[in-house]
Amino acid sequence: MVHSKKNIKKESLKLLGIGSPIIATQLLRMGLNFTDTVMAGNLSATDLAGVAIGNAIYMPIAIFCIGTLIAINPTVSQLLGARKFDEIGKNARQMFWLILGLSIPCFFLLRHLDIVMQLMGVQPEIIPLASGYLKAISWGILPFYAYAGIRFFSEGLSVTRPAMYIAIITIFLNIAANYVLMYGKLGFPQMGAIGAGYATSIVNLFGAAVFVLFTASFKPFKRFHIFKRISGPDWGYIKELLHVGVPNGVSSSMEVLLFATVSLLMGTLSVKAAAAHQIAINIAATMFMIPFGLSFAITQRVGFSYGKGAVEEARFRGFVGTGVCALIMTCTAILLFMAPNAIVSIYTDNAEVSALAVSLLFMAAIFQISDGLQVGGFGALRGLKDTRIPMVVNFIAYWVIGFPVGYLLGLKLGFGPKGLWIGLICGLTVAAFLHNLRFHKLTRR
């Protein structure tokens, strides 16, 4: 393959065409949590705390399961490249059994997490609300995983717009359901934080139902016979999905847990440190949604090429995709360097918190490029269905290097919040280098 500027531009535009709706979907999904937080905060501080604590416990569980279901993306993209259409349908049907297998234990787990909150030392008045929120969410866990699984299936086939359209509708549905259930309108009792949980379940049910109807009626999907051929669990297919998905789920959880742990450690330094960190990390997380969304498109592009045996093409697409992620994050880094005060002013007018948040944004700017490189490289490896070694890499990068460095500098040597963020920079940089080095080695022949 001739890697001319024309080919690079063509691949970049194709990637952005597939990835832009995924980016929008990710941002809109973040918007659901934002609306829950704002509407709970307008009720009471206790309701806000109930939603916050409930989400903090719920997210690691959900991220592991969603990360596991991502396996359907590279699986179907490789099969599409190999033109094994019947196998695509079989994997889709087995995906639903996997969704059921993940949903059942999660349902019961979410309904019995009071003891965890007690062990965490959560204030007694918050526990009933947080527990009720989790129990309300548990009713929507099956449709939530179904929505996610079908979404990843569609994205693996380069069909990325339906999830975005559904996400747009669910934002408004979530606001309406929150208003009725949280505030007690239309004859419903005022349920506060617990109402937000039920609203989330309603939104998840709606999203799953619409996506199932779309998948069943979408003409290009009919050749896969997804719903026409009903079959029981086939361990061979499920095992392959787990083989790819579980390490991916663990990898995602390790990264999220690192950032969550750093947030908790900020709380041991000072209230202002915790507040400034929350502002900076929220901004960084929003920026991260751009390369994160593109990483799913990279997975599809690499998987399709690898499935048809075009390893050189897969290599080209993987590195172009990672390059696009790095370029975008270079732009966000420049933005953070150029206008940190204006960005922080959206969140707070407290002078001390603002000053610390601005200093952390400068550090966030430094790790923007590393973050883009690591998520792009990880997406490319996922396209090869290579997730076990990346899982080990993430453990080493985040927990053997990143966390100890941050803990040592931030808490032991007195560098404070900046020291903890240096640990994040180190972890992301190591992950970026090793993920891309592995992709280079796997595709160089």
Query: How many domains make up the coordinates?
Result: 2
Structural class call reads mainly alpha
Estimated share of beta-strand residues:
under 5%
Give the total of beta strands.
0
Mean pLDDT: 89
In N-to-C order, the SSE pattern is HHHHHHHHHHHHHHHH
Q: Could you give a short description of this structure?
A:
The chain is mainly α. It is built from 16 helices and no strands. α1 (5-41) packs parallel to α8 (161-183) and α3 (72-81) packs antiparallel against α4 (85-110).
Describe this structure in words.
With 445 residues, the chain is mainly alpha-helical. The chain has 2 domains: 20-233, no CATH class; 248-445, no CATH class. Helices cover 83% and strands 0% of the residues. The chain has 16 helices and no strands. It has helices spanning 5-41, 45-69, 72-81, 85-110, 114-120, 127-138, 141-156, 161-183, 193-217, 235-269, 271-307, 311-338, 340-344, 351-383, 388-412, 417-443. The longest helix has 37 residues, at 5-41.
Question: How do the helices and strands line up, and which of them pair or pack?
Answer:
Layout: H1 5-41, H2 45-69, H3 72-81, H4 85-110, H5 114-120, H6 127-138, H7 141-156, H8 161-183, H9 193-217, H10 235-269, H11 271-307, H12 311-338, H13 340-344, H14 351-383, H15 388-412, H16 417-443
Helix pairs in contact: 1-2, 1-8, 1-11, 1-12, 2-4, 2-6, 2-9, 2-10, 3-4, 3-7, 3-11, 4-6, 4-7, 6-9, 7-9, 8-9, 10-11, 10-15, 10-16, 11-12, 11-14, 12-14, 12-16, 14-16, 15-16
